Amino acid sequence: MLVTKFVSMSLLFFQGQTPVSFNIVSMWHQMGLPAKLVVILLGIMSAWSIAVMIDRWVIYRMARKESRMFAPAVALALKDGKIDDAITIAERNKHSHLAKVVTAGLQEFSAHQASQEISGETIEASKRALDRASAIVHAELKRGVSSLATIGSTAPFVGLFGTVVGIIHAFQGISTEHTTGLGAVAGGISEALVTTAMGLFVAVPAVWVYNYFTGKIEGFDVEMDNSSSELIDYFIKRSGRGKK
Question: Cα 42–45–50 angle (5° rounding)?
Fold first, then answer.
């Protein structure tokens, strides 16, 4: 009897209500202008984050690939004392983060290697060149990544704004139709559902990828610092100051 009573109440509730469809097209048409603007904004944020993800993934992949080929080749050239050859090898690997840093130090050192005695100022100048190059490469690697953090932190709130707008629309439907039936609140419900879901859909991948890219950048920084330190050690030994 309880089931029968529930079915009867449900029939009374939906009696006289038009069928409501919750497919994407119908929900879009039922949305008001503010909710549509929210969805469009979230769509732009999603497109931007995807573009940054693809761009950074390609850049990091190329940097890793070229660095693996560059490191042993330049190490062999420096072992033989061929600094000019090492510079040539570094300039060929334009996408390698290590090559960009090493090139700056080698060029600075090469400008003074013709002298009989290489002073400590030359070593310090090479170190400063390496530091500047590392900072520049770090900024290049990080380009666009901060926007993923911004999108990941703001997209849920943009979606929440759409949710509030949807609830307001639902109450307006109740006030206009003078009924609490599903048809009166369908437009507002669709706005709240779509904007909330889309806000999370945009934010979650952006946060995940931001954390992943941050870890990659930290790894690149460690590699550049180690390469700079090893190159300075090489310069000191070559100048005859390693014994002091």
Answer: 125
Task: Answer for the pair 31, 173: CB distance below 8 angstroms, yes or no.
Answer: no
| Cα dihedral value 108, 111, 115, 120, nearest 10 | -20
pLDDT tens-place string over residues 142-180: 999 999 999 999 999 998 888 888 777 666 666 665 555
Cα-Cα-Cα-Cα dihedral sign, residues 83, 88, 92, 94: positive
Q: How far apart are CA 219 and CA 166, in angstroms?
A: 44
Q: Residue 9's pLDDT is what?
A: 38
Distance CA 136, CA 220 (A): 13
Give yes or no for a contact between 139 and 15, defined as CB atoms under 8 angstroms apart: no
- Its pTM stands at 0.76
- E-state strands within 110-190: none
What's the chain's length in residues? 244
d(CA 156, CA 9): 37
Q: What is the per-residue pLDDT across 14-50, written as a single tens digit (0 to 9) for each?
A: 344 444 455 666 666 666 788 788 888 999 999 999 9
Indicate the angle between helix axes 33-79 and 97-110, nearest 10 degrees.
50
